[in-house]
Design a protein that fits this description.
It is built from eleven helices and twelve strands. It has a domain of 188 residues: P-loop containing nucleotide triphosphate hydrolases (Rossmann fold, 3-Layer(aba) Sandwich), CATH 3.40.50. It is 33% helix and 23% strand. The chain has an eight-stranded mixed β-sheet, sandwiched between helices. It has a four-stranded antiparallel β-sheet with strand order 2-1-4-5.
Amino acid sequence: MNTETLLEVRGLKKHFPLSRGRLIRAVDDVSFRVKPREILGIVGESGCGKSTLGRLILRLVEPTAGQVFFKGEDITALDRHRLSSIRRAMQMVFQNPFGSFNPKLRIAWALMEVCRYYGMSREQGSERIAALFSDIGLSGDLLNRWPQELSGGQLQRLAITRALLSDPALLVADEPVSALDVSVQAQLLNLLSDLRKSRNLTMLFISHDMTVVEYLCDRVAVMYLGQVVETAPATELFGNTRHPYTRSLIAAVPRLDTVEARDRPAPKGEMPKAAEELPGCPFAPRCPSAQSRCLRERPPVKEIAPEHLVRCFLVS
């Protein structure tokens, strides 16, 4: 791994066994790299495996196969003791802010527990919390409140604060704004962008919203049924969309330009279940341009432009 890569995922898989020898291929041979201070968006429909991918990277879920390298070290090969020593540098913010805090603990106590876990004294923890509250724009009177007394936006800011207490290098944000009002979403997106710059954060931003991903992310990886089907810098992906599935996601975004929307038809039907055995391209049954070959063979990954990778027979 070169010095320009903070996180590298190689051939990562997570298969959940079912009865009669069947498998749910939640994540199926995913590979990518993330540079320091970069925001990589992972986008796709519900059930595509993007949240499982985020948990695999932090080893909150154990992979079936593949490797995850963080700062050059293969964390999939680490024992629990060694993993816990570097986990403070990799943190996660979850989707539901109302489920992120223990309702029986006041905010101050919940945050101080994290500080004590990472070896800070109460004085050090209090200073760290106060500094983050100032950076994130939170009022100190929230510390004496109960989680159920706060709004979703306040709780998600507090969840980000808690994740930053250990001063991580990598932040995995799993749908962090999807449960919030649109105006609050904009505030949190701007906050994440500012934190990336002020704290040299690298982020993996998981979302189903193409508009949010286009606004925030430097690069985008599009997932479908456990696989990454297109990866590119954000400007390239939205300006030169090549995979039919990516086009359908962009077409599904409400827009005033109805002519452009008609030029990018949405796919037919629903995403197949992850337990179904599909011999060809997973997207072929829904693809408006699918050929007979697409139903028989798995397409390889092609690099059609610098850093623009597509898994499709129809592109060249």
